[in-house]
Amino acid sequence: MDAFYASVELLRYPQLKGLPVVIGGGRRREDDLLARMRLAQPEREWTAHDLADIPVDMFPRLNSYTGRGVITTATYAARAFGVGSAMGVMKAAQLCPQAILLPVDFEQYRHYSRRFKEIVRDIAPVVEDRGVDEIYIDFTNVPGGQREGGRVLARLIQKSITDDTGLTCSIGVAPNKLLAKMASELNKPNGISILQPEDLTEKIWPLACRKINGIGPKADAKLQAQGIHTIGELAARERSWLMANFGPSYGAWLHDAAHGTDTRDVVTESEPVSMSRETTFEKDLHVLHDKQSLGEIFTRLCQQVAADLQRKGYVGKTIGIKIRFDNFQSATRDSTLGFYTSDAKAIRQAAGMCLKRIDFKRRIRLLGVRVGSLVKADSDQALHPVPLKVLPSVLTAKEAAPLKDLRHEQADLF
DNA sequence: TCTGGGGTCCTAGGACCC
DNA sequence: TCTGGGGTCCTAGGACCC
């Protein structure tokens, strides 16, 4: 199989090129910027076509932000200050206070995301969705796909996206998904990079292990501790050694990945496994002192998941909650019902029982509600659920003991 | 002044059935 | 009285990704 990995760059302001810019923090509509321009220069209309004309001074700076957000992405100029994705906005503001901060505008992203994927599917229909701005494409059977090793098709895709949306797009071409993704990183933004199997040692082996999709911070730290820093160093280790030290499954995968081996297909369709809603509070809350607002937030989360399920036509039978405490430790509880539901009240009831099984001795910063074991609302399974083999969990003696003091007050909490 | 929100997949132990 | 495996389902936590 030959695969493309394509990702669009969502920064749409040419006047910000080369400047330190981060996207993150609170959600806001991009229209806010236009609204400010209409105030500043009322003689002009200011529509979405005028984004390029907004003066740089009008953009908010990182140091004007207060709150708990994180950075979603950052330009290279911002990265030079040590700012990067997933970093707290407050920490980023310390490193680079003058950076421009753009709001996260999910409505805009969804719109451009849909368009980007439509355009690609019109050209090459075998597409795997990997989130808002990324896809895999299997172009094995696209007519003309092999010309110049894929470069002609990649250029066509790039040009079609830019003509339609104004967005730039990076594309990696390789024999499989793993390598295609890494290839796309070699030439960003707006680049095309073609990787042949024989390029592995020269182009991939010098890269940090972290560049492999599937090696995260934990695995990387463990590899570093073994003196393995680059993909080449990883490839040099015996498969059996990796399996012994990282588990048979992950170890074998590490070995394959380092050698550029990946047999996964491009998956064009998949069913959701779970849906959830969660929220981090502006300030940490206490189960007893902030009972009222917690109760309201909890109800709203249940209503939101229920609405999501109904809108997309799913029901689920495993209801769960997630708590993150002020020390960032988290806990989850879930419980499987004998029937499928997408009803807000039923979800709230089951989730409320889950909450009672948590020991709330610390303040909490996040609350989430999840519905799993999903099936289509009109499926046979949904209409004729098999009876439960395992009884829904009740508080075990072990769980109940530490809750003794709080249990009474918690009883009617959620 | 740390650390969002929405997901998937894996592991490991226990219950329960055959 | 002691001692089995498999297989499946459920639950909790954690790694990882975008």
Description:
The protein has 414 residues and is an alpha+beta fold. The protein has four domains: 101 residues, MutS, DNA mismatch repair protein, domain I, CATH 3.40.1170.60; 93 residues, Alpha-Beta Plaits; 53 residues, DNA polymerase, domain 1 (Orthogonal Bundle); 138 residues, Dna Ligase, domain 1, CATH 3.30.1490. Strands 5-6-1-7-8 form a five-stranded mixed beta sheet. The longest helix is centred in the C-terminal third of the chain and has 22 residues. About 1% of the residues have low confidence. It binds a DNA duplex (18 and 18 nucleotides) through α3, α8, β9, β11 and β12.
Quick take:
The protein has helices spanning about 30-40, 75-80, 90-95, 105-125, 150-165, 175-185, 200-205, 215-225, 230-235, 240-245, 250-260, 290-310, 345-355, 380-385, 395-400, 405-410, and strands spanning about 5-10, 20-25, 70-75, 100-105, 125-130, 135-140, 170-175, 190-195, 275-285, 315-325, 330-340, 365-370, 375. The protein has about 425 residues and is of the alpha+beta class. Strands 5-6-1-7-8 form a 5-stranded mixed beta sheet.
- Output the helix-strand order: EEHEHHEHEEHEHEHHHHHEHEEHEEHHH
Largest sheet: 5 strands, mixed
Radius of gyration: 25 Å
Oligomeric composition of the shown chains: single chain
User: Biggest sheet, strands in spatial order?
Assistant: 5-6-1-7-8
Unreliably modeled segments: 405-409
- The structural domain count equals 4
